[in-house]
Amino acid sequence: MKNSIIYQIFLRAYILMLIFLLGFFGLVVSCSSPIDTQAQKNKEIVAKTFEIVANGDYEGMNMYIADNMVRHCQATPDLVIESLDAFKEFIKADRKAIPDQKLIVKMLVAEGDLVAFWCTYTGTHTGQMGPFPPTGKSANLDFSGVHRLENGKVVETWVTWDNVTILSQLGLFPPPATE
Predict the structure, then answer these.
(1) What is residue 129's DSSP assignment?
(2) pTM for the full model?
(3) How many CB atoms lie within 10 A of CB 112?
């Protein structure tokens, strides 16, 4: 009789613990799945955006970048980009300066409407790049930033890189001595 009571108490405690764990697990899964799903969708949009930009697909940019897109960049503070058209002109100029460029996305991390990225940009400087004449030298540069998405499109970007690194690789830093 005594063993039967202990068995019933143990069984009830075990069942209550299972109910609690299953309920808690269900709550965690139901709370995290929609967020994870949206974060994954945003990462896919950003990955496709990088692919389209890297390929110079200007028409494709219309599908993934908002018309009123704004780009913030401390590495190029005087370059103002406040529209998709301005962004396309920036990409066209960049592709003229470094026509063999490659863009490799190394990491995407999403939270809410933001997707952080870490990428590598490589290529040979064979065209005018802002005030710098072609050097014929290659560059390999890491850059990072964050895209903000709205309605499935990139609407705002914060991006930065180390200008000293790329200018040194291109033989443009330190600047030549003036006579």
Answers:
(1) B
(2) 0.79
(3) 11
